[in-house]
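I had to read the description of the data format several times before I understood it. In essence, backbone conformation is discretised, so a fold becomes a row of integers matching the chain in length. I therefore recommend that a typical entry be quoted early in the introduction. For illustration, here is how one protein appears when written out as sequence plus structure tokens.

***
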Amino acid sequence: MTVVTYAGTAVTVNDEGFFEDPTQWTEAMAPEIARTEDIGELTEPHWQVIKFMRAEYAAKGTGPTVRILGKTSGVSVKELYQLFPKGPAKVAAKIAGIPKPRGCI
């Protein structure tokens, strides 16, 4: 485990950079995390996905897969890959401060 600082707050992340404790996440951290993933300014569609990821994690204990994201988040799979080119579910989960979704490599 590693400690990193986002928005002035120290948080614990695993070897891949995912939060160990999602309750430590705040919206102010998201733009900083996004920059580490080579994503520029977060747009409204980015936020829609980030908030959806957090809600799914809160409800089900895991983040959704890309397929589920594309079907239920209101953002198409094509747009998800435009927003999060390195892997929508994995990168969106990291920015949202939740663990890597099951099935992500």
About this structure: The first strand starts at residue 2 and ends at 6. The chain has one domain: 2-96. The mean pLDDT is 93. Strands lie at 2-6, 9-13.
